[in-house]
Inverse folding.
């Protein structure tokens, strides 16, 4: 049944699981319907709405809830399993009154992960209470592993093939077409695609790979999408994603990428992309990871050359040449990128085999507790970052990552936007030698329109404050 | 590599998972290899040995360990997943040096369930610490559900089809052939078979059904085997079982049967079979279950008529006619039994649909806490049973069940056998009106050779002591 | 192994069947290797080369053979089946030295169909000698059926879903993108795509549908490609096609379309497209087909509106309003086209069910012998066409179809091009009332660049000669 | 709908294809319904009835038709494919009113093969007119290949695994159980089973293998049954057979066995078994086949030792020691038989690989025209056999084979029985040195009850006439 409203048409529907089947215990069903203590209703409802809103560019978490105030989702128990009763859902999720199957699967992926891993609504971090030991680095890694395993992502036997693609959700047509060509070339070489869901550089490679996979008759290609409740509204998964996982927070999502992926491609993007670059470089700079093969390519069409030159300079200025040695920049050559990743994954395979590490999960990669702990982007936390030249490089990378993470939150996340509305822009303090390049980089993002969706003016949510070390506020 | 010893030849092997794939976290693998606090090594090793010993009749848990003192099993991590390194395994698990695939699958089922559900070696009940709330009736049911779901037993969409078959592991050739004929007729009607694993009445229906399923081209027939660590050595799963689950204890195993099964067939057997009959009648006598359709047929060849007449009398004498109304006795008519179960499952289906209960798990069946709590068969606990005419019928059934359970333990379980060795036979006290029929029934089992495997003399592990109520010892 | 030549790099390879497996008898293998009487080597070699050349726009059958003079293909017998030994194949069929799987499948489809249906190299019509009775209308239809059945195209049980797409292989970027959008909308609605293979309007709908099918998780989408030895060099199948059939000649290919398809979409094209339109209208004008639902939509982007207006006028001028009533023109509305076809197929389904005709083959459609007999485009045959107003409409349509067919041959087919080289342009005679509109239509095709691939000048292979009836040459 | 008649209850039903789907052209459907020239109705009806009568021991082809005089089968065309409308079919083919799926598949296998290969009702040999050249040895082999390929039996890629089992349809319980044990051991080793359909030694190995395959989780085990219209009534395929092929006549059926099988086991049997033994030895004695590995084992329980001793003597007396060197006799050791066949198939595999012959069809085996030509068992033909010591051994084997073939026909085939009724027993003439052993062997078959089903008295259909060569009648 569809209703017609002026701007945002909605539809009611009942949907059954498709493909992977979900069975809930009575307790689990009750928690999904409960809004009280231990209840999961709100998280489930919000993520479900985001999934249903796919295809509608939007980068303001708050706005989605405002558009569909009457949206609701309920679990119905039937003899043959559960159904979802959905009201006032975005009409774009339907074709002639039928929900698109890919979106239907996403709804049940949301349900699965919210039950399994996002149990705690107390704000303490997300993962199901009691199930994991989130106080230790090993415990967090274990949680990421279990969430991926429960989602069917971790599979033995199969060969390494996961190419992670990072990049902006708001990119130009030319850049978007370029991401499709890269996906096509990777698909022709049998690589699977993993992205953060959402439009732009996260969708293009999957579309291209779909054509490549079809030509190669790859029967069960994998299009992995890793997201988290805070970003899913702005980066709604496109329905090609056939393995969607909702990790509990930003840090576990990033850890999922680096442990489940085998090769890494970075397309042009904005601050989110910079955050991902700094996260991965921070990890790779750790001495324990020095020997790990880790194929990492920055690429774009000719027009993106300047963008990557600036990123490269920024990395050189702040983290130095060792960091620069961990990636290659390839401009306007999709087949070369695909060959580079394909070959690199071959080296990853040999390394894992040699060291008896699993193909499906990079256990050997050292991810310091620093990179695992959730960062709440408050004004106080942002001000407290240590952006100094004399910090160890991988810790400096960690705090630079947090700085960009805060800007992402201020740009598109519900919580971050509210902070900014309440207290004004974040202040980011640090050595002038770091603040200078950072300001330049952020300004170039603004100038290139990489901060927001096209057609909207950007109002910066941050202020860069160069300051000598002694001036830093105490933690 | 095979070694030749005088009596029990052994083989070494490395095996990979087949069919369902298992992936372990580093923590899980460590626990399976550890014998200390929280370690699972011993349970894993013992269950694995039982699985490998299939096909060798044996009903003394102690003896198995004595036969293969050098048996060992280790987990090896490889890039494509885990392997098991097995030493000094019973040669009968192999054909020309290759492990039988069905047994290989059973090893990985053992691994899966020991990791998931049998975590606690402290003896407090078995299920993984922290995962379930075993203090409440709902919590125990939830644990049973989760263990079955984790094992892939609980599947939505498919129609009710599970025929549970109970009966002796030590039966005559004629009775065994009869169980095959029943299995064949049920297989022809598309029913799946669920038993407690092991030989005799637990194997025959599966063999028969295999032929019936082949003729009906049933692509993925299900042969479910539910066992528990205490009984698996004596009732080693036959390799036809393609969904093996190791529940943590007797009571959860029984609950798994009644919640996952749709129809129930009881063949001749010994005390174990009597235990199962009393368990199910005790539950069905609960007023909350009065409306539940629950197809239950006792059947055997002509020669078993007397056996069932005695059981029927015993039930009439102790639990009364209401209990007798919950089952049908059908002698020597396999097609009639199969039609009765098939029709009954049709009524179960209608009832579940009507009441919106799941086809795959009987949530509505009330199983009182009494029936869920593990019963440790010590001399004190056996003496304390309340076998009095004026107890509520379903509680009397519960204690009768425990009495038979104790005899089973004394006959074939490692722990029970040691108790008897140490303290002599169990004493079972109760009203003469109950103790009389009980003694008669047990004596008839001894006379009919239903207590032990053929060719061994039976030495009773119990003593029936009729006593008026006032004489009962206080709890 | 790859060789580098100045312009057309080539590769050697040995390939095994993938997907559908082919087994040859000794006799069949011998015929495929033989160039003499009854030998199939030349047809096999030429079609194989066309298949391997996919992705390289080319519309001159002669040129392909000139580009790869050393290309060769041999059958090798191995214990596990046959292999193909290929030398000097176009390098574009390979990715990093591996043949694209889709192309590999096409090679074996060529092999299958050449063995089964293209046995006769004598030119007498193509189908395997002795197997079919090609002298009767029923016999020809039977041959088409058997060829499709042997290719696995005719499948029972499945619902009608085949949307045939016709249109030019040489279209503008805007038109091409439009065909992708139509394909996408049809894919979202679960429709399968059938085209004549080749680039342009025959490739776009498949690419679009691939994305739509991925979003709908359609497990085994069908991309049917029907071609014939005379056209395959110019319209090399794109590798998305996963059910390729090589029919023996133009007429059987056209009959395959109308009998296996359920809905029909016509995009802008050139004379080939006009030929297809006249063929289908000629059949639909037969009184026996008056009651058949037959969804037929002409569609294109806004810029194609003029093109279809001209076609529509031409049909009105020559065949009249009854013909015009059998199609709908929809401009620039992909979702509307998909809905129209989807709905129309629903009516086809109802009609077939009602009349007990097969979903998988339109047996009831009357195709007159006139439309089935191969037309050899010689100067004499072209001159002999009866393009007169007073012919019965469906016979006039048949001869108009032949006229356009001759122009296609003169434009792109090996044999036709040689005829023109030898004897100059074809002369097409007829009533001025028909010749006028025909000349106008053909001229508009030339003006719009629809006669040849972009970037080549068109040199007409025909001359329109209006002439009153009495002037017609005798047959 | 079921009817009750005094002795032979019947059922009406409509059945659809299951598993492999069949699609008929209009012409094919018409021929199956036609009884006139080129019509296939009678063959189809008779074979269909035989298939439906499975499970009812019967060895007189005439009797079956008498039991079910009103049986009829019609093809119905529906939109989703064909259905069969069946009237007055044997009730034993149904379970609770539903036709057993295996039997349903057999009906459609009959349909497929009758259409494809048994087209000619003129009696000239069976295969579809025009399709094959039955005048040459190569042409007949080609026909066998095409019939098997059309039935999906000939499959590339898979490894050699087909163990052909020959033996009596009327054997003792002990012998039957032994054939099950052999099947079980072969199933455990992954071998597929091929027999001539029917009960006894043709059913036991399949039942045993079904259990072995289940334990080894062999997903798609193959149970091949090769039969022919003349024998199918007496040897109705058991429903475990999942690849049934109806070859046109005795000789093509035998050739199918030796070309599609990889290992050969002979159980005790009667004249049919002797016929098979002589057929295979005749072929193996040809010098061109001397180098071919061809695993051939005669086996039975201890009680069958005498039987095989007699066969062995007969072979020694008539064909000599070279013939005796081509088989092994193994008594009462199922695992040894399975290992012998399994190892022998390994040698077959190596030989085929080395000689590049197909795994799926033994092209290299020389089968002389002598062994391929249908033998019509008339009194004249029987009298004309050349059973002389100085014939070349492989030709003597051929005529001995024909002699036994004639006795089979006289025992159980419709046509043969009528001949005997009309003209009295066949006369078999030959050298006393051959006639002596032959008479002894046949007499021992009679004495051991191997000529007929248990419980029926045997009335010999032949008379052995020793006679010196010069007395032989002219051909």
């Amino acid at each position: 049944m569809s209703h017609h409203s002026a701007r945002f048409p909605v539809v009611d529907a009942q949907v059954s699981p498709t493909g992977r089947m979900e069975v809930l215990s009575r307790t689990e069903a009750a928690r999904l319907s409960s809004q009280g203590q231990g209840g999961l209703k709100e998280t489930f409802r919000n993520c479900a709405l985001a999934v249903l809103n796919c295809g509608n560019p939007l980068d303001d978490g708050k706005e989605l809830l405002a558009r569909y105030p009457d949206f609701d989702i309920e679990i119905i128990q039937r003899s043959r399993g559960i159904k979802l009763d959905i009201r006032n859902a975005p009409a774009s999720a339907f074709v002639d009154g039928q929900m698109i199957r890919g979106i239907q699967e996403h709804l049940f992926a949301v349900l699965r992960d919210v039950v399994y891993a996002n149990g705690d609504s107390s704000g303490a971090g997300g993962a199901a209470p009691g199930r994991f030991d989130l106080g230790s680095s090993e415990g967090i890694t274990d949680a990421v592993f279990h969430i991926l395993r429960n989602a069917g992502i971790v599979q033995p036997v199969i060969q390494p093939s996961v190419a992670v693609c990072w990049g902006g959700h708001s990119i130009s047509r030319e850049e978007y077409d370029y991401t499709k060509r890269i996906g096509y070339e990777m698909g022709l070489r049998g690589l699977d695609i993993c992205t953060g869901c959402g439009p732009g550089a996260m969708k293009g490679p999957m579309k291209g790979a779909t054509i490549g996979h079809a030509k190669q008759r790859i029967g069960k290609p994998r299009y992995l999408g890793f997201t988290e409740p805070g970003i899913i509204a702005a980066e709604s998964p496109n329905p090609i994603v056939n393995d969607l996982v909702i990790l509990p927070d930003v840090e576990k999502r990033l850890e999922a990428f680096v442990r489940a992926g085998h090769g890494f491609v970075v397309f042009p993007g904005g601050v989110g992309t910079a955050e991902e670059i700094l996260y991965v470089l921070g990890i790779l700079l750790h001495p324990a990871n020095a020997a790990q093969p880790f194929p990492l390519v920055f690429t774009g069409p000719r027009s993106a050359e300047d963008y990557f030159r600036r990123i490269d300079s920024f990395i050189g200025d702040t983290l130095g040449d060792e960091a620069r040695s961990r990636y290659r920049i390839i401009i306007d050559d999709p087949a070369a990128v695909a060959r580079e990743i394909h070959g690199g994954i071959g080296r990853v395979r040999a390394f894992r085999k040699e060291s008896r590490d699993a193909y499906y999960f990079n256990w050997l990669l050292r991810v310091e507790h620093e990179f695992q702990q959730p960062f709440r982007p408050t004004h106080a936390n942002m001000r407290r970052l240590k952006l100094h030249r004399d910090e160890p490089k991988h810790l400096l990378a960690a705090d630079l990552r947090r700085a960009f993470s805060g800007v992402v939150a201020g740009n598109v996340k519900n919580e971050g936007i509210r902070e900014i509305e309440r207290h004004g822009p974040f202040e980011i303090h640090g050595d002038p030698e770091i603040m200078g390049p950072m300001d330049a980089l952020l300004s170039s993002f603004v100038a290139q329109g990489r901060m927001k969706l096209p057609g909207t003016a950007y109002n910066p949510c941050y202020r860069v404050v160069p300051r000598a070390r002694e001036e830093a506020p105490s933690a």
In short: Chain A has two domains: 2-131, 133-475. Chain A has 17 helices and 15 strands. The two ends of chain A are 56 Å apart (CA to CA). Chains A and D do not touch (no CB pair under 8 Å).
